[in-house]
Specification:
The chain has 267 residues and is an alpha+beta fold. It contains 6 helices and 6 strands; from the N terminus they run H-E-E-H-H-H-H-E-H-E-E-E. The chain has a 4-stranded antiparallel β-sheet.
């Protein structure tokens, strides 16, 4: 009886030792595999200057995290081995360089924006002093003159050579109301701003009169950009109601930092 117990204990002891040895070997393999993957990730990062460590948490000269598949991989310059020790300081250097470059770009963009704003203010003041009415000059001095009012005045000047040609005005409610009045079924409909649907796009075809107006405007304004536009006015509430289609020539002309636009109606 006792001999059997001793033999069983010895067998269990051998099994336990074999299990422990197996677990130790598996752990060693995992550790070796982890070390190898760690080194390969470090080698790839150090060899490619376009790669970056994760920004959160922020890299430091000692710690950083690299994207490593399912989860971030920690690199520690103090306890790492081989190439892994070089990763945190390099990641931190790249992080600081990117931060400085981003700051420099933002400062340069801000400087350009301030210069552009100053140029716009200078041209506005110049136009108001030269062409503004006394009322506009007073409101400009008080800082309450609307920009749109100034731009409209500048556009009057920029497109003065066009003369009194009919402009495309955004009065779609009135235009569609008048147009629908020609049809007995829709004559009593009252068109509101909420009912109006305007679909605009560049025209794909041009009639002879439309093309002639475009060429005429181009000759008058050789430095302008011209585009033939189509505007389709319809009722949201009555999809089957007649639609009014209008064509215009959109003229864009640059005056200093301002892009001035006028659209002229064509048949």
């Amino acid at each position: 009886m006792i001999d059997n117990l001793l033999r069983e204990a010895a067998r269990n002891h051998q099994l336990e030792r074999a299990y422990q040895a197996e677990q130790a070997e598996a752990k060693s393999k995992r550790r070796d595999g982890h070390f190898e993957r760690h080194q390969m990730l470090a080698e790839r990062f150090l060899a490619d200057p376009t790669l970056r460590a994760l920004e959160h948490p922020k890299p430091t000269p000692r710690h950083c995290y690299l994207a490593g598949g399912r989860r971030p991989v920690l690199f520690d310059a103090k306890v790492g081995h081989g190439l892994a020790r070089q990763v945190p300081p390099e990641a931190y250097r790249r992080f600081c360089a990117d931060l400085k470059a981003r700051t420099d770009r933002n400062q340069a963009k801000r400087a350009r924006e301030l210069a552009l704003h100053a140029e716009k203010q200078r041209l506005i003041a110049e136009w108001v002093a030269r062409c503004g009415t006394p009322d506009q000059q007073d409101r400009h001095a008080a800082g309450v003159l609307p920009l749109q009012e100034v731009l409209e005045g500048m556009a009057d000047e920029a497109f003065s050579t066009v003369g009194a040609r009919q402009r495309y005005i955004r009065d779609g409610v009135e235009r569609l109301q008048t147009y629908l009045g020609q049809f007995p079924r829709y004559a009593k409909i009252v068109v509101t701003k909420e009912d109006l649907l305007v679909t605009s796009a560049n025209a794909e075809h041009a009639t002879e009169p439309q093309w002639a107006l475009k060429l005429e405007l181009q000759a008058l304004l050789p430095d302008a950009d011209l585009t033939l536009r189509l505007h389709r006015l319809s009722l949201r509430t009555e999809p089957n109601a007649p639609q009014l289609t209008q064509f215009g020539v959109l003229v864009t002309r640059k005056t200093g930092p301002f892009m001035l636009r006028r659209e002229y109606l064509t048949a």
